[in-house]
Amino acid sequence: MMVKKKALLAAGAVLAAATLALTGCSGGGAASTASSTAAAGSGSLTVWVDADRAPVLKDAAAAFTQETGVEVKLVQKDFTKIQDEFIAQVPTDKGPDITIAAHDWLGNFVANGVVQPVELGDTAANYQKVAVTAMSVEGKTYGVPYSIENIALLRNTALAPAAPASYDDMVAAGKAAGTEFPYLVQLGPDADPYHLYPFQTSFGAPVFGTNADGSYNANDLSIGNAGGEGFATWLGAQGAAGNLSLNVTSDIAKEKFLAGASPFLITGPWNVPDAQKAGITVAVDPIPSAGGQTAQPFVGVQGFVVSAKSKNALAANEFLVNYIGSEKVQTALYKVGGRAPANTAAFEAASSDPITAGFGKVAATAVPMPSIPQMGKVWQFWGVTEAAIISQKGDPVALWQKMTADIQTAIK
Amino acid sequence: MTTPRTEQDAAQLRQTKRSRRASRVAEAASAGVKVLLVKIVLLGIVDAISVYALFVLVMKQDWVVVGLVAFVTLVVNWIYFSHQKLPAKYLAPGLIFLLIFQIFVIGYSGYIAFTNYGTGHNSTKADAVNALIVSSQERVPDSASYGLTVLEQSGEFSFLVTDPDGTISVGSATSPLRVVTDATTDATGKATGLAGYTSLRFADIVAQQQAIAALSVPVSDDPNDGSLRTPDGSSAYLYVSDLVYSAADGTMTNSSTGVVYADNGKTGSFVAPSGEELLPGWKVEVGFANFVHAFGSESIRGPLISVTLWTFAFALLSVLTTFGLGLFLAIVFNDLRMRGRNVYRVVMILPYAFPAFLSALVWAGMLNPQFGFVNQVLFGGADIPWLTNEWLAKFSIIFVNLWLGFPYMFLVCTGALQSIPTEIQEAATVDGARPWQVFRLIKLPLLLVSVAPLLISSFAFNFNNFNLIYMLTGGGPRDVTAGVNVGATDILISMVYKVAFVGASRDYGLASAFSIIIFLLVALVSIVSFKQTKALEELN
């Protein structure tokens, strides 16, 4: 009898779980529909945010609710999964009104029709220009930026007392320091176009040309111009000279810099805390030019966007433009994330920190990473070609032109 | 335990129908009460959840799911309240899970393979039209920002706007802006009210925000002058829209260029006569287009043959090497003369205990030509390109997979070896068989009877071993002069990932079509292999 009873119990439990799962599948949508119909009536906003920024937004949301009566529901999400989930959920009416986003997702969001433009109005002047440009697609602004992130030259002041004026200066100073590497930049088996981009732009070879309003023009692929060929030749020469090595992955570059094996590391603010913890006094300098022109790294901008299917568009706009965009909230967001604020006033306040000021100075000359959908097809040819050139697998200019032709075919 | 039960069953068989019913009543009256109670409570919970789900679903008017949930609930109640159907009682929960998590998912992937679902086509036509119209609203460059108060008069909303010069005007969707002079203003000169209208506070605006956000107030009788709209309820801006949707013939017209974008019914998007396509489009069924694309486009067809060959080679070699090493070690550690066998066995199983993708990452670091442990320590600082030479990368992949996979085979073979009776072995030895003959003619065939199905499943697993490839080499090294995004160690599944998911763009339709092709390949290999192993079973 015992046997039978247990089996029955187990079967019952499994059945309950099964039905729960089944109703969960269908009921999940139903529940959120119920909440969004409620939202339309009482006016409440659902906001997707990553765990780090949730506490700051909680305060801003509380202030917003107190002033306007609109409730703000914060939903914590894994940042890396937001892009795909937002695109998948907005069409089903289950998405949020607002989500946190990286600006380079915007091209994808716009192509999928899941975001709507945000009118910054006169507040547009309160942000750094590069941040607003980054948040725009075809001249229309789709998000309220809150932070700017870019790479710069990290210098170990004990090994190199002065900022290098040019690339050759940097290599000379690195060699004079007598360390294992004159300078470090993370590469890998497929190189790293993002970290090499400042050198590329210093030869005057951006990936895409720009329109009058600062947006990228997908029809103007300028990566293969004369400057690009110059960069390819330079890349080959640096690979041959051993200044660039594909074996230096991100982990190794960081580890070697922390161990004092090089005075310079081209990296972003994310590696600064560890360097300081390792007892290194670091200074942040502009990346020295290799080709004569300004070395412009890519800027990554983070911000908040409004769903195309939001039933609370007015409240969402109000919350973003007048609360998230405010100096107070932007300063608070800077304090938890350490990323330079997009709001100019907040940025100036944050610039009392020399590290933030150093990266900010580079950001002022930098360019937004293209968010146009065509950019996705550039990456797959870009890195491997740089890797082939660095490891001397052929004539640099020929490889570079082959890459340009491949990209041109792919983005057509 | 088993013997008395069998006797009891036999006794029961002899009982008449009447006495069986009597015993059932007795059973239900004694120990069965508790069981019955538990059953009723559990089924009650299940039914309560189902009824709740049904209410929600009816509100949502999702009739297909309503029918499904109602049907499943009824069937479940019928099964568990019935006195027979014992097999169904055991099978029902598993079947329900199977339907939800396997059959539905497979069926849905199959359906997606015949659509263009993916970036730019991820929703309905209505959503696409809405997104296009919303995005086409363009603020007139350098136009003024108007201070705004939203007014209401008998259910109709109006905008009371103050331009930067201080001029106050009022207008609604039906009547263009006209200047008014009798408005009340606040200290800053912004108009806040007008006689005959009610001024809305922010809370009122929020309550009506869909109507107010959609409101566009023309600035003059000429629609080309644009209209005022408000993004936040407190200020208004001048917008012009360059796309006009005609619901009657389903076309989009660009009012500034005059180009008409029509729905051609095939690609799920608005297309101009010149071939220019407006994005976003919407999801449509495209028949076999994805399969045609999978075999028809040069970027896929070119590397397809070499990738397929390598996939088979990789899966086959992985199974053979792991099985070979696992079997060898199992035999060695099965020898009773060996001391400390358990310690060795634990050490051997360790690679199996680490997450495979983590091990792959660690190996990628160890195989770094300049700084990796392998070259630095084992090869005395040699510069061997383990992961960047085409053939060495293939070797490294199989080697790392051997490291990851042999403990499983070791475990399986140890178990299988121990289940082979020692008498057979002794008998063979007595008959004069040499150790190798004993192994080859007796142990191996008996072993294969139980292990062969596992070898087939191991083959199927390695056929789709995305983690290892992606983490160790990322499919590389790549021949940059080939012009395709496929490397020397890419297997079918990693190639599909690269072809269908370029950057952030996702082509789920193509990916599903490929999955079906891979599924067919694996199924074919498995069916043939299982047929072969049937022959082995006759050994017993």
TrEMBL record, chain A:
May I ask which residue range the UniProt record assigns to the signal sequence? 1-30
Which InterPro entries is this protein grouped with? SBP (IPR006059)
Per UniProt, the keywords (alphabetical) are: Signal, Transport
Similarity comment text for this entry: Belongs to the bacterial solute-binding protein 1 family.
UniProt protein name: Extracellular solute-binding protein
From TrEMBL, chain B:
**Sorted alphabetically, which InterPro entries does this protein's record hold?**
MalF_N, MalF_P2_sf, MetI-like, MetI-like_sf, TM_PBP2_N
Cellular location of this protein? Answer: Cell membrane
Q: Which domain of life is it from?
A: Bacteria
* Span of domain ABC transmembrane type-1: 308-529
Q: Where are the transmembrane segments?
A: 36-57, 63-81, 90-114, 309-334, 346-366, 395-417, 438-460, 480-501, 508-530
Q: Report if keyword Transmembrane helix is assigned.
A: yes
Keywords of this entry = Cell membrane, Membrane, Sugar transport, Transmembrane, Transmembrane helix, Transport
Pfam families found in the cross-reference section: BPD_transp_1, TM_PBP2_N
The record's section on Gene3D superfamilies has: D-maltodextrin-binding protein, MBP (2.40.430.10), MalF N-terminal region-like (1.20.58.370), MetI-like (1.10.3720.10)
Give the record's membrane topology.
Answer: Multi-pass membrane protein
What family does this belong to? Belongs to the binding-protein-dependent transport system permease family. MalFG subfamily.
Q: What's the stated role of this polypeptide? A: Part of the ABC transporter complex MalEFGK involved in maltose/maltodextrin import. Probably responsible for the translocation of the substrate across the membrane.
Report the protein name in the record: Maltose/maltodextrin transport system permease protein
Q: What is the lineage of its organism?
A: Bacteria, Bacillati, Actinomycetota, Actinomycetes, Micrococcales
